[in-house]
């Protein structure tokens, strides 16, 4: 990727095959793509900043870890992020998106700095296990960002500290689909502009066969978006290879019947 010379590997993108858990590297690649797209945002759109999954390692988001350790790491990380994106001050950013991966499940934290709010988007319906699912991750993440904003003299830092994480009841939430959580997260990052669920044009159907077809199409769409983005320095090479593949005999383009098993095996071996 052109912004940070970050390397991504083919096996990571193979996780976009249907019914495979999306690898964290795909979410990070999408982060680069979305940050690049923000440079072309329309007038009046919020300035959104997308961060890497688990920008603070989860083992740091517990009571026994000193707050200063979290604060110092976030300060260093945000300095690098803003420098890479040529953002001269965090006060210019309206919204921050933070994917969290915990026990193979992906959910999204969104900090709205312009009209202070703190939201958590999760495609899975929440049952009695809510405490176990999120633990204190949202609270620690909010607090360390508030401390960072205070250091940066952000005018809404204290208002953000007063916010508790809201978990909206999304019409497209699922009860049985766990493996598409990464796709839901990328969809939420791509489409959410703030203001809550009302008026949010996410485009996803309620849980159904139709929704599953949508999610499969999004796996293809997001793979193409990442590979052909201007931030991908191998974009032109990939397009050439794709055109060569299109010219192959149809029989040579067929995947083996065991393709899903092969991909899952490669995910285990190499990632």
Automatic annotation (TrEMBL):
Ranges annotated as spanning the membrane: none
One family name in Pfam for this protein: Peptidase_C48
Keyword list, A-Z: Hydrolase, Protease
Name the UniProt record assigns to this protein: Ubiquitin-like protease family profile domain-containing protein
GO MF, one annotated term: cysteine-type peptidase activity
Claim: Hydrolase is one of the keywords in the record: yes
Keyword RNA-binding attached: no
Gene Ontology biological-process entries: proteolysis
Residue ranges constituting the Ubiquitin-like protease family profile domain according to the UniProt record: 1-192
Family: Belongs to the peptidase C48 family.
Gene3D superfamilies the record matches: Adenoviral Proteinase, Chain A
């Amino acid at each position: 990727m052109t912004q940070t010379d970050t390397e991504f590997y083919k096996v990571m993108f193979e996780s976009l095959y249907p019914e495979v858990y999306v690898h964290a590297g795909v979410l990070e690649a999408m982060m680069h793509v979305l940050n690049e797209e923000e440079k072309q945002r329309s007038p009046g759109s919020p300035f959104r900043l997308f961060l890497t999954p688990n920008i603070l390692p989860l083992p740091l988001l517990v009571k026994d870890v000193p707050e200063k350790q979290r604060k110092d790491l976030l300060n260093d990380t945000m300095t690098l992020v803003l420098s890479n994106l040529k953002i001269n001050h965090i006060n210019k950013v309206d919204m921050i998106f933070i994917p969290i991966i915990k026990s193979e499940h992906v959910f999204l934290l969104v900090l709205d700095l312009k009209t202070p709010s703190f939201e958590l988007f999760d495609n899975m319906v929440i049952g009695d296990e809510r405490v176990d699912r999120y633990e204190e991750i949202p609270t620690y993440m909010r607090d360390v960002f508030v401390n960072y904003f205070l250091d940066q003299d952000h005018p809404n830092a204290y208002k953000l500290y007063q916010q508790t994480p809201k978990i909206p009841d999304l019409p497209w939430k699922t009860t049985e689909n766990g493996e598409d959580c990464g796709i839901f997260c990328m969809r939420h990052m791509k489409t959410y502009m703030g203001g809550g669920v009302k008026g949010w044009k996410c485009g996803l159907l309620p849980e159904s066969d139709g929704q599953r077809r949508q999610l499969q199409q999004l796996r293809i769409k997001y793979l193409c978006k990442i590979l052909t983005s201007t931030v991908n320095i191998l974009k032109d090479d990939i397009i050439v290879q794709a055109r060569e593949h299109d010219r192959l005999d149809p029989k040579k383009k067929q995947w083996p019947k065991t393709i899903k098993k092969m991909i899952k095996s490669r995910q285990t071996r190499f990632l």
